[in-house]
Design brief:
The structure is a homotetramer.
Chain A: E1 21-37, E2 41-55, H1 64-71, E3 78-79, H2 83-93, E4 99-112, E5 119-132, E6 138-151, H3 153-158, E7 165-176, H4 182-192, E8 195-196, H5 203-215, H6 220-233, E9 237-246, E10 254-262, H7 270-275
Parallel strand pairs in A: 1-3
Antiparallel strand pairs in A: 1-2, 2-4, 4-5, 5-6, 6-7, 6-8, 7-9, 9-10
Helix pairs in contact in A: 1-2
Chain lengths: ~280, ~280, ~280, ~280
């Protein structure tokens, strides 16, 4: 029974508006995936996918069902090793020159509490973003949202006792030229925060994290600068954005900071020259 | 030009399934409103409305457009005085016995910082919920989400210095038998929190709120109990739910507590009798 | 190294406010789970947990860390068979009389497209809600959000051609007295919708679903009534809420309907008597 | 009473990490505003603000409270005429070289239904984004999300009757060199959609919009191309992004397309040259 033959292929016809489309495809489709895990081997989780290709000016439309076919191609779960091949297959099967594949998922790391050593899982929001540009360049970007505690240096300095602190989200979006583990990005951020956060803390742990945060105050500006300094020195990272959003405990709004850098660009950053100055 | 006449009224036909519908109508429609303000007279804001009626078993459908007509009936902005009349008009125009009208909006209160006195607006999420039950009973419920600072008593007690604190949302949902101002609910909660939060704080204010929170630690359990004690004693409140959600600064999850009470129910609460016990 | 001994147990002290707390615990904590699947055996997914107990009036606080310990007790993933035992363990370990355990997760079903038979996964949002009431009663409630197509009967009837249609969410919240599969709830809803939705459709499938929806128009009222009729007749269901929200394609708001019924309550529903009337 | 004098200004001290911060400030703060309206003169609404400045490498921190002071400077509501002055004041008062001011708000337009002429409000999500770059360049960008109906040409073509349709969000983000009304952007999009959407439709209107959408099918690709063609020809627009997201009625995911263009860049777009070809 061939229903397809007599059904016209509307999307495949020619288009006369002479306007290329930068991205066209499907957005917000969920699928189970399987991720390699630095310590456990494998973890199962659920990703939201965005899948787009560039469409040349002379094609009327893309074939949306092919994106979903690629997602459902093999076994039930998509393994992380398939990410690169999926991106290439997407560009090829959609007869495109450029493509954009994004998958976002909760990722879990087993952590030991700092004093009692009790173990629990912590969840991080992670995205993989793969791009094949029109000029053939490939980019892989890893984005990790790391929840931490931030404690305000000003509040500590000016108050007779106590200091306001809060949960913050530090987000690193790093374009890589070699493999980096999600765990490596998480550790860079957690080591630099006022304190890292945990799923499970017993009383001695709670004492520890309270005192550690108080001993280690950081402005939102400090947080992004300290992370940026490490990312600057990391040769596996070509470009990055680091953001921190502090959900202030004394306000109903956030404090926020962002540093962005692309090491591949030749122009010197303003501060580079100033660095050499007598400052 | 009468387009309506020949167009069949599908919704008005009879239904044979013998199943009444508890709520039917429109959800998530936005409209500008005008609220009476305890200090300023009037404030303009934007509400999201849910508008439902009960549908007897023998009617096939309700007339969705009539709900939207009621919203757009008069002038551009709906005044808060229209809330009760709108609910009654909705039930009447939809030929229903019961109705449910809900509007949720951000509400602003001008606050003075505790030391410097600098003024700024704080935003609160407020809902009005009006119900006409099938038995003719009318209920008006006011819901207010109050952001506050909470500081953990355990963390303070066990730590040599500092204490973890965070933003919390304390939500009061109060069924009223007389008018209460939004500002009255807000003040009950803010007076009982570890500290209230502000839009604008100068350094001396930040010192003040840091020390005040440290002097005034509260568990999530304390917060809901202290608010419940005040609501218990408030004769204008017939029934309430009080919730607190603390967005923990040392975890990636919330601490949460809820107390619910309907004073109109005759049955004694279990703890009432225990209160008289030797405990 | 025993840090715990000298650290005071603030939460365990007595409380003099004489106010019991209905629910206290942790909210919005994510954890991987493993679900039994009607066809595949096992599927791995990620759940958001809310875990609460009732707290008698004379205890100052609950022990928040015990909730997280229960989550992290065994192996990495929580299996669905653990849900009941977890609820009982929670009540026992927190020395409570009542408890409330909720886990919400995306669930996937492999579906075959109606004509081409191509297979793809569809995602559904599912919750398990387990309650142990203060009187010892146990309740298990299954909630499933089923995305479907709804096509408007009025639009079809009054228009020379076409009919507006849209994605709708039909939500069934069913308190069960025996096991039911998630797949059974999904099928009840999908069979009654204007048309079910799929991840992957080829052109002949798209023709099929377009025509099927047009042949099968349903108001939001029809949808909830048709589902209610099936749930009324299902002996494994003690009580239910069925809702439909249509994200109208011709408006920027939703059409919505809800039917709620508890078969365990003795009082006859109003329409029951009317059913016997000459109507 | 001068509390400020003895309190150290931690933020004002020097920083030795030699890393400038691209954006630092406050995020997600709500404030009432007053917008000029093409037809009504003035409308009151509520905005969410993000306010950032660039921080040179040698300053430790910015003064967060100054952002909130600027918001609360004058009268209660911020008028739209203040947007430019606010951005300049922010950069000046924070002693910065660059600044980024963003406000997002629901905006209402009174529309007449196409046949009955009944009037109702439609809500649109609007953002103003003002940027002062480090090189002194000023940019003003207007972003408008326009909800419309999209009807699938393929579904119409291949089906004996009916066609799937759904609500779509068409988002135009336009960098302007002269004033444009929000209403002008809305009209460009609504004129090009399968059909525009309305708050209130009577039965003859519902017949009209059903038939109009069926007569006017558009792929997500058509939608962004047709809008792009108008934006290309509009001399008041220097650069734009146009996106369409269709919340597919036959799937549980979206179809999506995006076209981006900066007319100020000299390089010819690939299609420009092809335009001159024999195609």
């Amino acid at each position: 029974m061939n229903h397809c033959a007599p059904i016209p292929d509307v999307q495949g016809s020619l288009d006369g508006r002479h306007i290329a489309i930068d991205k066209v495809g499907i957005k917000n489709i969920r699928h189970p995936i399987r991720i390699r895990d630095k310590s456990e081997g494998i973890q199962h989780t659920i990703a939201v996918f965005n899948m787009y290709v560039g469409l040349p000016h002379n094609f009327k439309g893309t074939h949306m069902s092919r994106f979903v076919e690629i997602l459902n191609r093999d076994e039930r779960e998509i393994s992380v090793e398939s990410f690169g091949p999926m991106l290439r297959m997407m560009v090829e099967r959609l007869e495109a020159k450029s493509g954009h594949l994004e998958m976002s998922f909760p990722y879990f790391i087993a952590k030991a509490a700092p004093v009692s050593g009790v173990r629990s899982l912590m969840d991080y929001e992670v995205s993989f973003i793969g791009i094949i540009a029109g000029d053939g360049r490939h980019d892989f970007t890893l984005k990790v949202v790391v929840p931490v505690t931030s404690l305000c240096p000003c509040s500590k300095e000016i108050s007779a006792y106590g200091a306001h602190n809060q949960r913050s989200h530090v987000t690193v979006t790093a374009t890589l030229n070699q493999h980096m583990w999600i765990e490596e990005i998480v550790q860079i951020v957690e080591d630099l925060a006022s304190c890292e956060v945990y799923g499970l803390l017993k009383r001695p742990d709670e004492k520890f994290v309270t005192e550690r945060a108080y001993d280690n105050p950081k402005f939102v500006e400090d947080m992004v600068r300290d992370v940026a300094a490490v990312l600057n020195a990391e040769p596996r990272i070509d470009a990055y954005i680091v953001e921190s959003e502090n959900f202030e405990s004394i306000h109903n709004h956030s404090a926020y900071a962002l540093i962005e850098r692309d090491k591949r660009k030749l122009e010197a950053r303003p501060e580079a020259s100033i660095t050499a100055s007598p400052w």
